[in-house]
Specification:
Layout (H helix, E strand, L loop, with lengths): L3 H13 L6 H29 L5 H13 L1 H24 L9 H16 L4 H12 L17
Helix pairs in contact: 2-3, 2-4, 3-4, 5-6
Length: 152
């Protein structure tokens, strides 16, 4: 049985934070689950900043300074802003105009020709000739050679 003096000494060591038997474990947990992920996040953001070609130099510099001065807050803010911008760009891209030189009707005709070819109504030759006609600006006639002229 421990004497009261030894007990007080052990209690003082535990309260002071030195000599606890599990201190090493909590240090390892802290490093593995907090420090390393934060450092990896920070490195990933800095590398991604240097690899971006859509951002001007001064904007990269501002982000880099923000991330270097406030590593955790800066990295998380950069990721959130990038996600919001990417989502906005994707939404705008979905509603964008057809490529130059094509009209909405020609895009619609090409889609209809492709649908007919995939369903087996048109042969590959008929599809190619119809596609050529649409791209040349002529109206496409998606009817098969022996067909009745109706669309499905």
């Amino acid at each position: 049985m421990q004497s009261e003096e030894e007990f007080d000494k052990a209690k003082a060591q535990l309260l002071a934070g030195d000599g606890g038997s599990m201190d090493w474990f909590w240090h390892v947990v802290w490093v593995c689950f907090v420090v390393i992920p934060i450092v990896l996040l920070w490195i990933a953001v800095v590398v991604e900043l240097f690899r971006r070609h859509d951002m001007r130099g001064w904007m990269k510099l501002l982000w880099l300074l923000f991330v270097l001065v406030f590593p955790v807050i800066g990295a998380i803010t950069y990721i959130i802003v990038t996600w919001v911008q990417a989502d906005r760009a994707r939404d705008l891209g979905a509603a964008s105009e057809p490529p130059p030189g094509t009209s909405p009707s020609s895009v619609r005709d090409l889609a209809r020709l492709d649908r007919l070819r995939r369903s087996g109504v048109l042969t590959e030759e008929e599809f190619q000739s119809g596609r050529r006609a649409v791209l040349e600006g002529k109206p496409a006639d998606p009817t098969p050679a022996g067909g009745t002229g109706g669309t499905p």
